[in-house]
Design brief:
The chain has about 325 residues and is α/β, with parallel strands linked by helices. The protein contains nine helices and 14 strands.
Length: about 325
């Protein structure tokens, strides 16, 4: 399945700490524990979809610097195309992630001048309208794409990262997407009531809400009430990208495998639980490690396996 994922990719430095708040010491020795990798919501989702076997193009604003080179190199490892990335920023976005022994994390993000970057439909044609699924990962930079995608009847997935309740005007226009996901992290009060209020305003086929260690809620148009999908209990090591893992696995099973949204959420919760219970798989690890976490069966060797068709088959400019 061909997918376009649009949003932030950044250089990411992961740093373990003993606890929060961080106690001051003049020096810490962390041999083998400081990791310079690639992150960002769009990159995390795109990388997981690649590992699940999809042909994915990433559209991110980048600079012409060494973090952009890291992103290109990591994309190459996962067979992720970066031909839609725009290299117009003064500096590529970057982040520093602190995480403790209980799984809590603090993400310190420098989006640089990407905060004012906006994708226009002509930046992404023809790929944008030929993909089977378009994932909008960072909302401010993709607003001009919503109406053209709707007019062409494209399947769109959106994650409302900073949703704070049913009346948040920032996110209202994105409720027209086909699949809408959100986290309960900043939602005060009753999550079920929030989903019910959003469903009344939304044209989405499926609304999904992640609940951290408690799993997820799924609400489809033919349901009377949201369904609670529980997550396996695990000892969390690092919760960075757990929500992105959930969303990629959910979309894979709903769109590609034609599973019910409830079944897809169950498989996505299992994958996210494996992710948070595993030492970070990025960096020196490879695609096989990520596939195992995502629940991809090991392939059976075949001498007659067909060659995979990539983006170059319909993107002459790549």
């Amino acid at each position: 399945m061909r997918v376009v994922v649009i949003g932030i990719a950044n250089q990411q430095t992961s740093l373990p700490v003993d606890r929060f708040p961080v106690e001051y010491v003049a020096q810490r020795y962390l041999t083998g524990a400081i990791r310079h990798t690639v992150g960002g919501v769009a990159f995390n989702v795109a990388r997981s979809l690649c590992a699940l076997g999809h042909v994915v193009a990433l559209a991110s604003p980048l600079g012409e610097d060494y973090p952009a080179a890291m992103i290109d190199a990591e994309a190459y490892r996962y067979n992720l195309s970066t031909h839609l990335c725009r290299r117009e920023l003064a500096r590529t976005p970057r982040s520093v992630v602190l995480y403790d022994t209980t799984g809590r994390r603090q993400v310190n993000t420098d989006l640089t001048d990407a905060t004012s970057f906006v994708f226009q439909p002509e930046d992404l044609e023809p790929d944008l309208f030929r993909a089977k699924l378009v994932v909008l990962a960072n909302l401010d930079m993709v607003r001009p794409l919503l109406e053209p995608l709707r007019q062409r009847g494209r399947r769109v997935a959106v994650d409302l990262h900073d949703i704070q309740g049913p009346n948040n005007p920032y996110d209202q226009e994105f409720l027209s997407a086909t699949y809408v996901n959100m986290s309960n992290e900043m939602i005060p009060g009753d999550e079920i009531a929030v989903l019910q209020a959003l469903r009344a305003k939304s044209r989405a086929k499926v609304l999904s809400m992640t609940l951290g260690a408690d799993g997820a809620l799924v609400f489809c148009r033919d349901m009377d009430a949201p369904v609670h999908v529980r997550a396996p209990r695990v000892r969390a090591i690092n919760t960075v990208a757990a929500g992105d893992t959930y969303w990629a696995v959910f979309l894979h099973h709903v769109v590609k495998e034609k599973r019910s949204p409830v079944d897809a959420a169950g498989l996505a919760c299992e994958a996210a639980s494996r992710m948070v219970a595993t030492e970070p798989v990025y960096g020196s690890s490879g695609v096989d490690d990520l596939r195992e976490i995502l629940g991809v069966p090991k392939p059976v060797p075949s001498a007659t396996a067909p060659a995979e068709i990539g983006w170059s088959s319909f993107s002459p400019e790549w």
